[in-house]
């Protein structure tokens, strides 16, 4: 598996898109720091971008890599290697290279700006951790979709729809249901509903660590009570881990019966 | 050496292999022929473990291959379409495949044979189709295995490389290896194959030497003999 990972990683690290992605974050980091002149504020703006962008890029890279390397995967399948090792290697290769683009691209400007002397270091690290989780989650989800869909165009469409659903539509449904069931106590419901969407979970996890959660009102207080504690933090991280593991398990299950 | 026993494979409603039985003994060149969509590639992919049959079993050296992967170290496979990671160089790709197989390899000899020395450091994405096919051939022939499977090996090759390929196949045959080839180019079959396996509707329709086929169909020309076999089915 490590050998496959190594070469997938090399291949991606040399692709133009990894650099574009890296440079984008580098530029974003510098521009935000220059405009805000304040690490804390920059972290907040950055969160809004990362929460939407990393899932999108992870999704697109995942499906694209799967379909583009299809013939090569067939060559690997004819080698004496276990099937699941090939795909796990590719999956980790993509996820790690994307995570590296994110961490280095944002890390460099913030470190240069004096992150280590700032109080925002914890928030910033949390942002990077959550961003990395989102990379691993969405690459795994998109790999699942690609594995289940023979047709490239359909696979691409489904993957984008999945992203759109989790990034936008889910929130819409969530909000509508909050308005509709206004008369009932909804704090438990909203807490649980957040868990079923990794993007929402990440957003709230970061928001509550930042000092803007006072804006959130009563439900905010319930959330604060939950996520603000160490237990809540550990629990939400654990749920993010599940969001990575469950697609991986399904991937391996699917692989056992798949024809190439 | 290889036994397919009562092999069934369906893709949705489409029945590709329908209770196929086939025995291939050790040594010699076997051409697997059949019209488009007759199940040639599916048969080979079943043997490689890439396609999982619904029913039946496959034995390689008397051991079942289903759900195993170790046996693949004992065979070389040339896939139909050569498409490699575009950002790796030829040399890196060769190193990688070598890395994946714990086996001796003689890639330098093959690189010289196909004149790939100038392309070694080029990225695979920048190579022409024919050159990719040559790289594909190097990857297939560089290991010493008893079974060699070639899926449409002549695609995109120039005449000189084609001659080299034929020589290579004969050389491997002389070492007592078993070679399975699928192709649509009858002159190629005529030149290299010892035996023909003809698949139609998911079953073995004919198995025997070229001479036997010509005799059975009353045709002196291989191309017409094969066409005869196919048209009989359509009639």
From TrEMBL, chain A:
The chain crosses the membrane at residues 20-36, 42-67, 88-115, 121-146, 158-181, 201-223, 230-249. Keywords: Membrane, Transmembrane, Transmembrane helix. It comes from the Bacteria. This is Cu-processing system permease protein.
From TrEMBL, chain B:
The keyword Membrane does not apply. It comes from the Bacteria. Keywords: ATP-binding, Nucleotide-binding, Transport. One of its GO terms (molecular function) is ATP binding. InterPro entries: AAA+_ATPase, ABC_transporter-like_ATP-bd, ABC_Transporter_VariousFunc, P-loop_NTPase. It holds the Pfam family ABC_tran. Residues 2-226 form the ABC transporter domain. PANTHER family: ABC TRANSPORTER ATP-BINDING PROTEIN ALBC-RELATED. This is Cu-processing system ATP-binding protein.
